[in-house]
Amino acid sequence: MSHVNYFATRILDAVGNTPLLRLDRIAAEVPGITLLAKAEFLNPSGSVKDRAAKSIVLEGLVSGKLAPGKTLIDATSGNTGIAFAMIGAALGFPVILYLPANASPERKQVIKSYGATIVETDPLESSDGAYFAAKAAVDADPEHYFFPDQYNNPANPLAHYQNTGAEIWEQTAGGISHFVAIMGTSGSFTGTARRLKMFNPAVKTHPVQPDSPLHGIEGTKHMASTLRPGILDEKLSDGTLTVNTEAACAMTRQLARDEGLHVGVSSGANVAAALALARTLPQGATLVTLLCDNGLRYASSTFWEEGA
Fold it and tell me: What residues does 36 pair with on adjacent strands?
């Protein structure tokens, strides 16, 4: 029998090193400005949250907080939960996820496909309600659970400091002038912005959030009306950008039809905010944002139809 030479890797090693894509058709209205988007939907579970979930789990294993016999339990709006479920399946530990009942059915199905358990919480209490419910379960039996607490875990932004920010700097050959990222836990904004400013303090970093507490941009937070993540570092902000749901949905459709990028509504929000910022900038600026997750995760959503 012949021997075959091959290179193989484990699923966790496939996280990160995503390509940086040019959005030339969308940027046509801002000549002289380069608009780039990091294809985070190409991470193995389909979203940027793979980065934070990997970092959090590995830190838990190294510290001993996650050990044989323990169950990972956390609150999620969907994407981090999917990432935890994927990693739990790959490494062989059980996962329980609390998420609002109005999370997309596709997200729930993906989580279940990895073998994780879902506990649905009141949709009117959004991700805050899921967080309090998960924490109550942990408080009742702390020895049984590993509670990552993604909103307050330093390993979350550290993943983006060590990797996402460094990748963007390298991929733009240090030419980035502005970074734009919508916030849920705020880990991707905080960690990436911190690293970019370490490379060059002149880089402008802009967090993005929905313009209203009542919005349809799943997985994101209107910070004034919700629990503030402990990992958020507002000193890194060079001005918060806001985006409404209609603009985010319209840009999500445009990304699919004009750029061939079938991504989720938070990605549309990021690009809409980056384009609005670009309209105010002089020629020569290079803006980078994130395409957070795969659009198939929202296949049943009505926003794909014009005027929805």
Answer: 22, 288
Pair of tokens at residue 280: 């105010």
Q: Judge whether 266 counts as a catalytic residue.
A: yes
Domain boundaries along the sequence of the chain: 11-47+160-304, 49-146
Which of 104, 266, 267, 301 is catalytic? The answer is 266
Catalytic residue (one of 49, 54, 108, 221): 49
Q: Residues in the chain, how many?
A: 308
145: nearest Cα among 98, 215, 185: 98
The dotted CATH code for 49-146 is 3.40.50.1100
User: DSSP for 134-161?
Assistant: HHHHHHHSGGGEE---TTT-THHHHHII
Q: CB under 8 Å to 246, separation ≥6 — which residues? A: none
The pLDDT tens digits along the chain (308 residues) read 455 555 656 899 999 999 999 999 999 999 999 999 999 999 999 999 999 999 999 999 999 999 999 999 999 888 999 999 999 999 999 999 999 998 888 989 999 999 999 999 998 888 889 999 999 999 999 999 999 999 999 999 999 999 999 999 999 999 999 999 999 999 999 999 999 999 999 999 999 999 988 888 888 888 888 889 999 999 999 999 999 999 999 999 999 999 999 999 999 999 999 999 999 999 999 999 999 999 998 888 878 787 55
The domain defined by 11-47+160-304 carries CATH number 3.40.50.1100: yes
Report whether 227 contacts 128 (CB < 8 A): yes
Q: What does residue 95 show for φ and ψ, rounded to 5 degrees?
A: -135, 130
Contact 183, 221 (CB under 8 A): yes
Q: Is the pTM of this model over 0.90?
A: yes
